[in-house]
Amino acid sequence: MLPILISILIFTLVYLVIGIILRPKAAAVEERVDDYLLSAPASKREMQPELPSFADRVLIPALKSLGGIIASVSPAGSLDKIRAKLDMAGNLRNFGLLEYYGTKVISAVLLIPPGIWILFNVATRPVWLSWVAAVVIIGIGIWLPDIILQRVIEARQASIRRSLPDMLDLLVVSVEAGIGFDGAIQKVVEKAKGPLSFELARVLEQIRLGQSRGEALREMGRRTQVPDLMSFVAAVTQAETLGVSITKVLRTQADTARGRRAQRAREAAAKLPVKMLFPLVFFIFPSLFVVILGPGVIRFVDLFKILGK
């Protein structure tokens, strides 16, 4: 009975994860369909009722309900930190605070039966050690969303750092061609893809809603927490305040960003010998020793057998 329960729980977890991952793709398809229907005659639009997806009807409300229980007993400081991390991760799937806490609850609950079953059938005595290990596995289930979120944040920040020099070069070319700074940002959003383009699109949207350019750029720096991007934002806002030529500032920032990227590449190349040392010692050298010394060892063993006779 327990293996069947474990299979059901694993299937539920996989279904939830797939539903959350595929939700943006389904939303994109629905958006294209809506664009088509808006340009179609009224008779066709009336024939296509809006049907929410299963994730919108069941999964997301369930996650919000579970997350609301945890959020209600969590301190305000931790809630603000989670919101900041979700913004740093991009929040591309409209994954709010309640959904995040709900995911933590489901992750912990789904690991309880498998962890207890495995530990009480595999782990050795004493029994208290099994209980401690079971608590550790449940704790892993609680912290697993935090670990995944941190990995997403680090990958997104690395992507922004890599694409920043190219974005600055495109900004410089656009501004020198006579396009305004906002228009140059629009060109970057149209030509480039990725997290940095997404953040710049948010900046343009905030400017259209009436926010000042400097404040919108500073919010982008606070959202991403990338030092290189925050340095660019500080330089642009200071140039705008002091009336300095934006073209010179952008060119200086582009040269600096390219130099930083080259420096990081040199640092990564310098770390390669140290990183290659452990695979060489534990995997490659033993194989070489077996290939090189193996025949000699076999001959010595045969020789000792002969001498022993």
Q: Could you give a quick summary of the protein structure above?
A:
By secondary structure, this protein is mainly α. Helix content is 87%, strand content 0%. Helix 3 (54-73) crosses helix 5, helix 6 packs across helix 11 and helix 10 packs antiparallel against helix 11 (246-308).
Characterization of the model:
- Helix 7 (181-191) crosses helix 8 (195-208) and helix 9 (213-224) packs antiparallel against helix 10 (227-242).
- The protein has 2 domains: 2-122, no CATH class; 159-262, Type II secretion system (T2SS), domain F (Receptor-associated Protein), CATH 1.20.81.30.
- It is built from 11 helices and no strands.
- The protein is mainly α and 309 residues long.
- The chain has helices at 2-39, 42-46, 54-73, 76-88, 97-122, 127-176, 181-191, 195-208, 213-224, 227-242, 246-308.
- The chain starts with a helix and ends with a helix.
SSE map:
Elements: H1 2-39, H2 42-46, H3 54-73, H4 76-88, H5 97-122, H6 127-176, H7 181-191, H8 195-208, H9 213-224, H10 227-242, H11 246-308
Mean pLDDT: 75
Order of helical and strand elements: HHHHHHHHHHH
By DSSP, the count of extended strands is: 0
* Share of β-strand residues: under 5%
For the biggest sheet, the summary is:
none
Helix content: over 70%
Q: How much is the radius of gyration in Å? A: 28 Å
Distance between the amino and carboxyl termini? 62 Å
Number of helices: 11
The number of domains = 2
Poorly predicted runs? 21-26, 40-48
The coarse overall form would be flat
Structural class: mainly alpha
